[in-house]
Structure formats: structure tokens, C-alpha cells
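Please fill in the sequence for the structure shown.

STRUCTURE ENCODING:
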């Protein structure tokens, strides 16, 4: 694994694996690649192995399971069915040509919403047991939970986290995340005892930096010192604080954009400004 990991993870949600970009990521000290069983029409793992099999040992590879092909080639469907999850984990390792370092349970809140506390807990525990067994069998290094909206997951473990002990959490991060979701993510981290170095963020721009909102904001007040950085760079740095995480998965197909984000990860921020921001959005 690359020693110069700066907490930036190359996400493959919006783009396919590109050999040149992967090589550039390594040269920048980016040592994580994040993908999922269902990305690119369930072909992302095979595509990644095809274009960069010889480089994958240099990266921490994370993937996710929880979405499956729909009937007759229709839209993918979400499921926490243990048998389907088990098959997806095994298939992921086969398609990648190596065991992933982390397998996340993909958006489990979709299978928990609207269910009673005990039923939701038991469904989450059953799914968690599958991934814990995969770790024990050597099919992955560790397992975690990746959630877009942590509230149903936090509610499922409100009374008990028995049988649910992920080694990592992947949470929505950044200025676009509402306070209730930020707070629920922090609750998950605390109740599940996931250490700071195993807390990941995702979707720091909630879409694309081309959205006009990113050119309209002035985020200078959040930085600890004056610096010549773009608004997207400042927003990316803030994603490590909202909520506090140590790695952020971000998708890009542009090597220069990736370079800018790597540099942004090293910026110093104002803890006081971040604290005031949290107070304001909580009050709102």
C-alpha cells in the first residue's frame, strides 16, 4: 500500500476506470479507489481489473454491495437479503482478481426505513453477519456501512448495536449535508465505536463542481489563513470536517482536478468557523 496516502480516495461512481488517471493518482499519493458491485451496470469490478490489474496492489480497494440487477434487465434493486449479499461479495473478489480491502453495506437505510426498531435491527444484524463472515473467510479485509442518510441506520441501533460491529463507516460529507444527517452520522460513529481513522466521507460536492452554486460561494472565512485556492478546493477540505472523517471519496475524470483536490486536503481550516457553522445550521 502506498505510504503517502493523503486521505483522498478516487471514486468510480460517475466515471469508468482509466489507466492514465489511475497512474496519475498514484503519482499524487492517492492510494484509495472506491467502487461498487453495481457501478457501470455491474461491470465496474471487471473493468477496473482489465485496465489496471497490475496496479491494484498499490491501492486500498473499497467496494459496496446492496444493489442487484432488476428483472429482465430493468433498473437495479436494493436488497439486504443475506444470500444475495454473500454472492455479491464473492463475485466482487473474483471480478477484481483480489480481495477488496473494505466491503461496505451499500445504503442499508433503504431496507430499514418504515420498519419497527427490532425488525430494522434484526435485518441490519443479519446483513452485517454476512459481511463479518466474509472478513473471517478472507473475502475482504474488513467491512463497513456506507449510508447516504444515516438516520434510519442510527434508529436501528438506538436500543442495541449487538451483532453490528463494522470496521469502517462511509458517510455523506460536506457543506451540502443537512444537520440532521450530519448528526446521525456522528451518532453512528459514536455508538458503533468506529475510530476516527476509519471514518470516510463521500460526495463532497453533492454532484458536480460545475454546479453554479460552487462559483457563487465565498468560503474564505473557513480557512485558517489566506490562501489562493478555488471554492471547490475549500469545499473539499471542509468535507473532512462535516462530519469529521479522515478519508474522502471523490469522483473525477480529470487529472488536474484530482491534483487540486489532493493539494486542498492539506489546507488548514478555522475550527471556530466550523463550530459556528454547525451551530447555525442546527438552530435553523
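FILLED IN BY: designer on duty
SEQUENCE:
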Amino acid at each position: 500500500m502506498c505510504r503517502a496516502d493523503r486521505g483522498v480516495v478516487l471514486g468510480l461512481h460517475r466515471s469508468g476506470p482509466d489507466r492514465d488517471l489511475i497512474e496519475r493518482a498514484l503519482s499524487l499519493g492517492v492510494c484509495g479507489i472506491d467502487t461498487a458491485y453495481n457501478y457501470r451496470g455491474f461491470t465496474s469490478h471487471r473493468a477496473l481489473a482489465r485496465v489496471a490489474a497490475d496496479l491494484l496492489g498499490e491501492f486500498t480497494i473499497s467496494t459496496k454491495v446492496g444493489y442487484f440487477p432488476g428483472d429482465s434487465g430493468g433498473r437495479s434493486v436494493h436488497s439486504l437479503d443475506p444470500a444475495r449479499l454473500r454472492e455479491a461479495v464473492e463475485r466482487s473478489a473474483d471480478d477484481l482478481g483480489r480481495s477488496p480491502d473494505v466491503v461496505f453495506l451499500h445504503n442499508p437505510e433503504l431496507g430499514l426505513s418504515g420498519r419497527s426498531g427490532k425488525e430494522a435491527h434484526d435485518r441490519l444484524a443479519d446483513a452485517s453477519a454476512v459481511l463479518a463472515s466474509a472478513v473471517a473467510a478472507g473475502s475482504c479485509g474488513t467491512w463497513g456501512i456506507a449510508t447516504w442518510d444515516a438516520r434510519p441506520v442510527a434508529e436501528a441501533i438506538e436500543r442495541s448495536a449487538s451483532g453490528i460491529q463494522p470496521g469502517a463507516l462511509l458517510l455523506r460529507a460536506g457543506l451540502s449535508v443537512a444537520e440532521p444527517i450530519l448528526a446521525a452520522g456522528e451518532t453512528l460513529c459514536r455508538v458503533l465505536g468506529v475510530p476516527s481513522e476509519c471514518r470516510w466521507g463521500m460526495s463532497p460536492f453533492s454532484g458536480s463542481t460545475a454546479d453554479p452554486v460552487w462559483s457563487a460561494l465565498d468560503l474564505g472565512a473557513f480557512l485558517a489563513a489566506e490562501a489562493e485556492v478555488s471554492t471547490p478546493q475549500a469545499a473539499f477540505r471542509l468535507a473532512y470536517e462535516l462530519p469529521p472523517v479522515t478519508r474522502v471519496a471523490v469522483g473525477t475524470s480529470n487529472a488536474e482536478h484530482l491534483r487540486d483536490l489532493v493539494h486542498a486536503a492539506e489546507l488548514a481550516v478555522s475550527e471556530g468557523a466550523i463550530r459556528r457553522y454547525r451551530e447555525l445550521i442546527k438552530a435553523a
